[in-house]
Amino acid sequence: ARIPDEDIAALAAIGSFGLKIPLIYGGLELGNVYYNRALTLIDGLKLWGTNAVIAELLVVMARVPASEGHRGGITAFVVEADTPGITVERRNAFSGLRGIENALTRFHRVKVPSKSVIGREGMGLKIALTTLNSGRLSIPALAVSASKYALKIAREWSGERVQWGRPVGKHAAVAHKLAFMAAATYAQESMLELAAGLADAGETDIRIEAAIAKLYGSERSWQVVDDLVQIRGGRGYETADSLRARGERAVPVEQMLRDMRINRIFEGSTEIMHLMIAREAVDAHLSVAGDIIDPDVSRADKFKAVAAAGKFYAGWYPQLLVGRGMVPTSYREYGRLAGHMRYLERTSRRLARDTFYGMARWQGGLEHKQGFLGRIVDIGAELFAMAAMCTRAHAQRATDRRAWRSSVSLADAACKQSRLRVERLFDALWTNTDSSDVRLAREVLEGKYLWAEEGIVDPSEGTGPWVAPYEPGATTERDLHRKVD
After folding, report:
1. Count of Cβ atoms closer than 10 Å to residue 69 Cβ
2. HSE of 190, CA atoms in CB hemisphere, 13 A
3. What is the pTM of this model?
4. Which single residue of 164, 207, 420, 479 has CA 20 to 30 Å from 49?
5. Is residue 293 predicted with pLDDT exceeding 70?
6. Which residues pair with 199 in a beta bridge?
7. Shared-domain flag, residues 235 and 113
8. Could you give the 3-state DSSP secondary structure of residue 348?
9. Domain CATH number, residue 350
C-alpha cells in the first residue's frame, strides 16, 4: 500500500505548524509487527521519542516480517497519536534540554491501516536515512549559535573583569582560550555554510559533508562552551537565577554546558560518526581490493583481485606524490591564505597515502583499528574546515569587502591552529598507545583492577537493572500524552 502524493502533501502542510501538530520520528526499540494487505498490528516500546508527549502524528519505523508476497523489512507508518493502544508511559528527564518533550511510548496491538505505509513496504530505512542530512546539519547550526554566544560573553567578560591590574583577556592564559573560541566559531560556521550550500544546490550527495559538519561542530562547540565556563570561573558554574538574585548579569553558562553535551551523542555519536565517515573513506579501496582481504574468497578469485588492484593502484598512487600544492606560486589568488591552500592540497594527498598504508598494513583488521580510523577522520575534518574557511574568506572579497580583511585574518589564525592539530594527529597515527590501551581495557573488564575502585559507595546499586526489560502487553501506567492548544 502507498499513501497518495496528495495525502503526503497534506501531511507536510500539517507538520509545518511545528509544535501545534508536531511529529515524532523513530523506530521501535523492542516489539513485534503483524502485517497484511489490510491491517498492521504493532507491539513494542519506543524509548527517547522526541515530541512524543505532545505529538498528534507519529512516524513509526517498524520491522515487518517477510511473507509470501511481502518483502518485509523496516517499514515507515504514519500513525495518529491517539490511536488506541498507544500510551506515553514516561516523560524522560535529562541533564540539559529540560524543555524537550521526550517520552517512553508503548504500542500494544496498535491497529494501523495499510494505507498508512509511507512509500512502500521495506523502504523505511531508506526514508529514515533521507532525514539524517537535515538532522546532521541542524546540530552544527545549533553548535554555531552556541559558540557565537559563548564568544560574545567571553569577549565582554574578559574585557570587563580586571585581575592583577589588567583585564583578564589580556593575560596569556585567557587570551589563548579567546583565540581558540574565535577560530573554532569561524571554522564551524564556514563548514556549515559550505555543507548547507551544497545541500541547497541539490546536485551532490552530502552525507559525508553533513556528517563531518555534525562531528566537528558538536565537538568544537563543546570545547568552546567549556572554555567559557573556565573563563567565567565560579560564575560560569553558577546558575543564571543565582546570579540574578544577587544583582549580577544572569548569564546561563552552566545551562549551555548541560544543553550542548548531548550534541556529541544524538544524531550519531562522535564514535559512530568516526566509523561511518571512515567507512566511506576506504570504500574506494574496498571496492577494488576487498576480495584480497576477504577470508571467504577463493584463492583463484584473490589472484584476480590482485591483478585488478595492481592495475588500479598503478594509476592511482602516483597521483598522491605530486600536485599543485608543491608549486610555490600556486593559489596566488587566495593572497595571504595561499600557503594554507597549498598545505591543504599536499596534506590531502598525504592523508590518502596514510589511509592506504593503514589498509595495506592491517587489511581486514583495519575495521578494528578504531583509534587509527578516528584520527584519519579528524584530520579530514580539520582539512575540510580549512578549505571552508579559506574559500569563504576569499569569496567575501567580492561579496563583502567590509568584512573581507578581518575574515582573512581570522581564517589565517584559525588555519594555523588547525595545521598544528593536523600534524599532531599524523604523528599519532603511527606513534600511540592504542594496543596497550586495548589490552588494559580488556584487563579492566576482566576485573584485574577491582582494587582501584575500592573506597567508594555506589548509590545506584540495587535501584534496578542497567536496561529495563521489555514486558509485552497492555500498559499499566497513566497516559501522559497531552495536546498543545
Report:
1. 7
2. 28
3. 0.86
4. 207
5. no
6. none
7. no
8. helix
9. 1.20.140
Q: What DSSP assignment string belongs to 420-475?
A: HHHHHHHHHHHSS-HHHHHHHHHHHHTTTTGGGGTT---TTTTS--SSPPP--SS-
CA 218 to chain centre: 7
Is there a single domain that holds both residue 337 and residue 411?
yes
Domain annotation covers residue 480:
no
The torsion angles phi and psi of 251, rounded to 5 degrees, stand at -95, 120
197 and 286 both lie in a single domain: no
Q: pLDDT at position 286, please?
A: 56
Is residue 382 part of the annotated active site? The answer reads no
Question: Residue 227 maps to which CATH number?
Answer: 1.20.140.10
Which CB contacts under 8 angstroms, 24+ apart, belong to 39-42?
A: 39/111, 39/112, 39/113, 39/114, 40/64, 40/77, 40/111, 40/112, 40/113, 40/114, 40/116, 40/117, 41/109, 41/110, 41/111, 41/112, 42/77, 42/79, 42/85, 42/107, 42/109, 42/110, 42/112
- Residues 262, 340 within the same domain: no
In this structure, are residues 217 and 136 in contact, taking their beta carbons and an 8 Å threshold? no
Q: How many CB atoms lie within 10 A of CB 47?
A: 18
For 76, the grid coordinates are 515507515
- For residue 370, how far is the Cα from the chain centroid? 17
Close Cβ partners of 24 (under 8 Å, ≥ 6 residues apart): 49, 50, 51, 52, 55, 57, 58, 59, 81, 105
Residue 200 corresponds to which cell in the numbers above? 541547497
Give the single-character DSSP code of 70. B
Q: Which range (54-63, 381-390, 449-458) has the least confidence?
A: 54-63
Residues 286 and 425 in one domain: yes
Cβ neighbours of residue 274 closer than 8 Å, sequence gap 6 or more: 215, 370, 373, 374, 377, 378
| pLDDT of the residue at 70 | 75
Specify the higher pLDDT residue, 258 or 485. 258
Residue 136 domain boundaries:
131-268
Annotated catalytic residue, options 101, 267, 345, 382 = 267
Q: What does the alpha-carbon distance between residue 251 and residue 228 come to, in Å, rounded to a whole number?
A: 11
pLDDT tens, position by position, 367-425: 899 999 999 999 999 999 999 999 999 998 888 888 899 999 999 999 999 999 999 99
